[in-house]
Amino acid sequence: MANIEHLQTVNVPAAKVYETLTTAEGLSEVWTNELIVRNQVGSMNEFRFGGHDADKMRIEELIPNNRIVWRCMDSDPEWIDTVISFDIEEKNGKSFVTLRHMNWKEVTPFYRSCNYNWAIFLYSLKSYCEQGEGLPYQKRKF
C-alpha cells in the first residue's frame, strides 16, 4: 500500500486550523465550495468538484485542535476505503499540520495527481488561515 504525506506550517493557533478543516465555511474556502459538511463522528461529508459525483467522506475521528480523520466511502475507485487524516500540533502559536492520505492500493498516475493536489490544498489552508483567502477548486486554473 502507498501513502501520501505532507507537512505544512501555518502561522495561526491550532484552533483556527481545526475550525477551518471541520466547518463548511472553512472547507469551502480551502477545498471546494460545493459541499455538505457535518461536524460529528460517523457523519458523511460530501465534496463536489465541477459537476462530478460527490466524494463522500465518513468522519472517523475528531479530536478538537489536534486530529481529524475521514474514510472515503464513495469517490473515484482508487479513493474508496482510503483514509485521510490531519494531525495538528501547535508550538509557540504556530500549527504544524501533517496531512496523510493512506491505504492506496498502488502508485498510479491518479495517485501522483492527488499527491500534487494535496500540496495545493495545504497551500490553500495556509493562505486562508493566515490571510483570509484560500484557493478552492473553483478559483484554481487547471
Automatic annotation (TrEMBL):
Gene3D superfamilies referenced in this protein's UniProt entry, alphabetically: 3.30.530.20
InterPro entries: ASHA1/2-like_C (IPR013538), START-like_dom_sf (IPR023393)
Activator of Hsp90 ATPase homologue 1/2-like C-terminal domain location: 11-129
Superkingdom per UniProt: Bacteria
Name of one Pfam family that matches: AHSA1
Entries under CDD domains matching the protein: SRPBCC_CalC_Aha1-like
Protein family membership: Belongs to the AHA1 family.
Name of the protein this chain belongs to: SRPBCC domain-containing protein
Organism encoding this protein: Paenibacillus oceani
